[in-house]
Amino acid sequence: MAKGMRTGLILILVLCASCLVSCGETAVNYAYRNADCGANPVRIVSATSREDSEQARCAYQEHVAPDTPPDAPARYDLAFLEFGDHPAARLSDSQFLLIKSQIRQNRQAGRDTVLVAYVHGWRHDAEVNNRDVQGFRTMLNYTRSFLDQRGRMADTTEVLGVYIGWRGRQHDEETERKSNFPSIIPAAFTLGERKAISETLSEIVIADLRDIQSELDLDNSDDRMIVMGHSLGGNLLATGLMTELEEDLRRHGQDHRGQAFQPPLGNLTVLFNPAAESQKWTRLQLAMRDGAGLSPEWSRLLDPAETSLETLFPATQKPVYISITSICDKWGPEERSGDGLLNCDWATGYLFPLASHFSNSIDSNDRITIGYARANYYVTNRDGVKRWEIDGPAIGADFDIITNARAGGLSTYVNANVPDTSLCAPQGNWLYDARVSQIQGNHHNAGRGWDVEAGPRVKPEKGQSTALVQIRHDVSLPRPFWHNGVGLAPSVAPANGPLWNMRAHGSVIDDHRGLVNYPLWCVLNQILLDDVAAAN
User: Fold this and answer.
1) Could you read off the pLDDT of 400-454 as tens digits, one per residue?
2) Which of 23, 55, 188, 474 could hold 488 in an S-S bridge, CB 3.0 to 4.6 Å?
3) DSSP characters for 191-230?
4) CA-CA-CA-CA torsion sign (390, 391, 396, 397)
């Protein structure tokens, strides 16, 4: 094909995609879940995550699983809080007020509230039966089961899910699917523009979440709050929290060394496959080092200057800000799935850097996302001793997470109500024990390199652990970086650090959107609900 013809075809494709983007746009200032259903939550009995009820457009819903005991029903509340583009503002005050009112009612009735907030990402919104809404409902159903296993039944502890909706998709992809048109083609041209919108919304979304948080008593009760963002939803949170966290981390090292670092939002904030520039994390790492009186450069593992970083936080420090990205690096053969067909996060690994060439909203000098940032490791051989070194700043991903075995059933809405497939018993102290045992095993390393098995315990298969999830204070590197048959490089984070940038195996998050994973969700709930970092 002649070069001119190829160029012409490319231009035609671009024009067609642009037309689909502009001609198929969804409404800008329309709240999908704003039906007038009264002041009380509408009760919906649902056996699946699909939304087939006529009440699905209600802003506040109570979901009850069928065939559960009347005196201990498996139930959770689902609320929606939606935001528009022009202007960037809350679309419905009634949605916001219903959430605050229900928390107050829980407190007046003597019930605790476990609030789970979720900010969806690119190509999603709050439309009925959106896949992210369905996945969120599955996560809430598991949390209800996890609380029941802790003796915190629905009559004493309410699960309140808050789905944060915004126009993450700019056009009607469902119509394109019905016409057999690959929706990713026009959607790809909206990534940069939607990213800019997520950043514009970050301040007001976080302000509303903090207003809702003010209704909870996170210090003196069993109320809990976790905030999650996926893809551009993760970018929204990372953008809104970055400057404040940067200042707090620097101040902590200067004025509060050895004390616990406080969460920036709720009890725990989690970014799943965040479509955000790496600097939204690395700036925090540099601020932490600055507060500790260290230069950005790595001085050497176990050097006295580096180990001084370990005194910033106590061994009882819980993680308060976590990023988890499904990395496309090739993991070791002993850590690959049986079928070898697990997918990584192509959107933040490949599409994001590509889109940076066509969008002003992505920093052209920072085309790598948070999860894909990695220190420049290399190996030296001095006097016959091999050592890990870093060329440049000690920044980037600093933890690994992998699923050792499959749970006894798929991560589904139905299985969340089955005890054998939703086991997530209380597990206190595991993080503290891992840190302290590493110090006892090698008192020279200040607890670095700990390896913990967490999550639900299952009957082990041959050669497998009894725990489904493994978290390591190390970084797995691709084979070219291995030495002595090992690809585990030292983490650049302090062993007791409150910030975890985790490189996830495909068994933890499969592809870009496969975050509804029962073992992963169990571990995050343990961090939220249990004293995992408490001293024995």
Assistant:
1) 998 865 544 678 888 888 877 888 888 888 899 888 887 765 545 666 788 887 7
2) 474
3) HHHHHHHHHHHHHHHHHHHHHHHTTS-TTTSS-EEEEEEE
4) negative
**Sign, CA torsion 289/290/296/297:** negative
Fill in the amino acid letter for 85.
D
Q: d(Cα 368, Cα 352) in Å, to the nearest integer?
A: 8
User: Closest by alpha carbon to 236, among 142, 124, 78, 115?
Assistant: 124
Instruction: Please tell me the distance from the alpha carbon of residue 276 to that of residue 281, in angstroms, as a whole number.
Output: 9
Q: In angstroms, how far is CA 467 from the centroid of its own chain? A: 21
CB 335 within 8 A of CB 402: yes
Q: Are 167 and 28 in contact (CB under 8 A)?
A: yes
Burial group, residue 256, by CB count within 10 angstroms (0-12, 13-18, 19+)? middle
Q: Among 42, 23, 56, which Cα is nearest to 129's?
A: 56
Residue with tokens 């073992």: 519
Sign, CA dihedral 439-442-444-445, equals negative
Other C-beta atoms within 10 Å of 233: how many? 29
Q: Could you please report the per-residue DSSP string of 16-46? A: HHHHHHHHTBPPSS--SS-B---SSPEEEE-
What is the C-alpha to C-alpha distance for residues 431 and 498, in angstroms, rounded to an integer?
A: 12
Both structure tokens of 219: 């210090």
pLDDT digits (tens, 9 = 90+) for 494-510: 999 999 999 988 888 88
Which among 163, 173, 198 has a CA at the least distance from the CA of 92?
163
For the chain, report the end-to-end CA distance as a whole number of angstroms: 71
Contact at 8 Å (CB) between 448 and 490?
A: yes
Whole-Å CA distances, 327 to 215, 476, 520? 37, 10, 16
Q: CA dist 460 to 347, 358, 406, 468, Å?
A: 34, 49, 10, 9
By the 8 A CB rule, do 347 and 340 touch? no
pLDDT band at 88 (very low <50, low <70, confident <90, very high): confident
Q: What is the DSSP string of 111-134?
A: -EEEEEEEE--TT--S-TT-HHHH
Please give the single-letter amino acid code of residue 197.
Answer: I
Residues 6 or more apart whose CB falls under 8 angstroms from that of 152 comprise 112, 222
Q: Residue 82: which H helix or E strand, with range?
A: strand 75-84
Instruction: Tell me whether strands 474-476 and 488-490 are parallel, antiparallel or unpaired.
Output: antiparallel
- Three-class secondary structure of residue 445 per DSSP: coil
DSSP3 helix / strand / coil % (the chain, rounded to 5): 35, 20, 45
